[in-house]
Amino acid sequence: MFAGFQGLIEDPILLLAIVSTVVGAFLIVAIFNLLISRLEKRGDLKKGKLVHMRRFFQIIIYAAAGFIILSMLDVNITGLVAGLGVGALVIGFGLKDIIENWVSGVLIMSGKTYAIGDVIRVGDLTGTVTDIALRTTKLKTYDRNEIIIPNSVLMREKIINLTGGKQEAVASLTFVIDYTVDAEKAKSIIENILKNHKSVIFSAKKKREIRFIFRNREWTNEIEALFWVNDPPNEEFIKSNIAELIHKEFKRKNILPPVPALMRKEYMTGQKMDS
Question: Under CATH, which number does the domain 119-163 receive?
Fold first, then answer.
């Protein structure tokens, strides 16, 4: 190692190579920062992402430059790392998850999987993205809980982005009705309420239409309605209000929920059958 430093003093070419490596590292970082600044001005990246991306990239470039310089100085990097022994192994395992999360964070930020403000579904969790950092992503659920998810977990999970834009999201409601009820009549009621609801977007031109999925069961029929809402963070509250309106209209129009056959006549007439 000391021989390498001695060679540095005696060999001006080696000194020039090291200086060039340092200058090159600074130039690469400067070019990267310029690129990030342009992306920021274009609106492709948000400020929250920039700080973390710059920091991560600088660490990688400067670390690479450091290893190159040590190699020029004839420092046995492999022996140096091996000499750390068990300590290096422990540190390596400790840093594994951190590095994995950082890499995942950079991939998420550089891609367009989701952005701050989007409503996403990860497994059983659904919420609004409030922050994207290098190591974690924060979601706020509909019950106002904040969930912090490691980015490495997100990269392994199936992510469904429910947001069709900054202020749009796909929502769904499922209604279970008795098998004797006219399904078309039920769908007509659902569609009419959805089209006239202030929080539902309906535009055939923009392909924001109401669609239905019909499922026939043994004693019931299921009707799932898919529609667009204009306030993704409050989707659950909107769905709750719509469901209440539809159930009231169902009751008014005698759209029965699933009921046992012996009780069907009683339910429809509101009179008790003779025992």
Answer: 2.30.30.60
